[in-house]
């Protein structure tokens, strides 16, 4: 995450990245087996509030990320809402049929999409890439050649971004973007793709040769510039996540919003 976007650093930034990744992955798996609509509502609400409290991003950046998550949730839910099956029809127009059952299932899918997006953004916005890959090597024992390879690829993204604007400026100066139409657009995309891919392949080859020459494939006796360890923040993080999940399950029983305890039935 670009540091220019971060206006404050919360304690989520101090959690061990490998541990945070494991807990987030476990949350994704737990979410797959939640079919209670009330539980999904409360769980989404809890992690939405957590994102607002712990992300530390600038308000405008956070707003656009949440807006994107909201759009993805709507797109994922509309298919089930409009074309799902159900006995209690609420609205019908030609081939569009909305029933109580399809509405509940669509809302459940939309909430799950929003929940996954928010959890993913919470991890991405509170984790520094370099520390994450160092943590993978030290805590999970990921082979250095893969960890450093992914880190090198991650660092190439800004370079590709700059190259794209350079290629576009060069084409604009030469008048190669004046033509309109589908064929001209296809030709433009082809030129961009060939130029970017060829440069990326050359750069990846040079990086791979350099890493091999510097013995990045060796795993024994390797030392690290950053030493990633566990701290009290990791325990607080586990307790916080477990508390949020437990609170969502309890609130879904104590204060249900809908009668749908299993959207699959």
UniProtKB/TrEMBL annotation:
<dbReference type="GO" id="GO:0006824">
    <property type="term" value="P:cobalt ion transport"/>
</dbReference>
<feature type="transmembrane region" description="Helical">
    <location>
        <begin position="63"/>
        <end position="83"/>
    </location>
</feature>
<dbReference type="InterPro" id="IPR003339">
    <property type="entry name" value="ABC/ECF_trnsptr_transmembrane"/>
</dbReference>
<feature type="transmembrane region" description="Helical">
    <location>
        <begin position="12"/>
        <end position="34"/>
    </location>
</feature>
<dbReference type="InterPro" id="IPR052770">
    <property type="entry name" value="Cobalt_transport_CbiQ"/>
</dbReference>
<dbReference type="GO" id="GO:0043190">
    <property type="term" value="C:ATP-binding cassette (ABC) transporter complex"/>
</dbReference>
<dbReference type="Pfam" id="PF02361">
    <property type="entry name" value="CbiQ"/>
</dbReference>
<protein>
    <submittedName>
        <fullName>Energy-coupling factor transport system permease protein</fullName>
    </submittedName>
</protein>
<feature type="transmembrane region" description="Helical">
    <location>
        <begin position="235"/>
        <end position="257"/>
    </location>
</feature>
<feature type="transmembrane region" description="Helical">
    <location>
        <begin position="40"/>
        <end position="58"/>
    </location>
</feature>
<keyword id="KW-0812">Transmembrane</keyword>
<keyword id="KW-0472">Membrane</keyword>
<keyword id="KW-1133">Transmembrane helix</keyword>
């Amino acid at each position: 995450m670009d540091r220019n976007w971060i206006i404050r650093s919360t304690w989520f930034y101090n959690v061990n990245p490998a541990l945070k990744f494991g807990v987030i992955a476990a949350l994704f798996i737990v979410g797959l087996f939640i079919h209670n609509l009330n539980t999904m509502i409360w769980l989404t609400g809890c992690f939405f509030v957590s994102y607002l409290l712990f992300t530390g991003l600038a308000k405008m950046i956070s707003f656009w990320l949440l807006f994107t998550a909201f759009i993805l949730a709507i797109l994922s839910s509309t298919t089930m809402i409009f074309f799902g099956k159900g006995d209690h029809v609420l609205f019908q127009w030609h081939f569009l049929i909305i029933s109580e059952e399809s509405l509940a299932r669509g809302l459940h899918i939309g909430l799950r999409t929003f929940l996954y997006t928010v959890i993913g953004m919470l991890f991405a916005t509170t984790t520094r890439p370099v520390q994450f890959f160092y943590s993978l090597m030290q805590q999970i024992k990921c082979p250095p050649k893969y960890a450093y390879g992914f880190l090198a690829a991650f660092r190439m993204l800004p370079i590709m971004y700059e190259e794209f604007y350079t290629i576009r400026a060069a084409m604009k100066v030469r008048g190669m973007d004046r033509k309109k139409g589908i064929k001209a657009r296809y030709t433009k995309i082809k030129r961009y793709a060939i130029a970017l891919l060829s440069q990326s392949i050359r750069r990846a080859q040079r990086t791979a040769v350099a890493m091999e020459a510097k013995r990045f494939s060796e795993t024994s006796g390797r030392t690290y510039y950053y030493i990633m360890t566990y701290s009290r923040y990791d325990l607080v993080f586990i307790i916080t996540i477990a508390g949020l999940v437990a609170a969502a399950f309890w609130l879904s029983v104590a204060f249900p919003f809908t009668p749908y305890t299993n959207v699959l039935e």
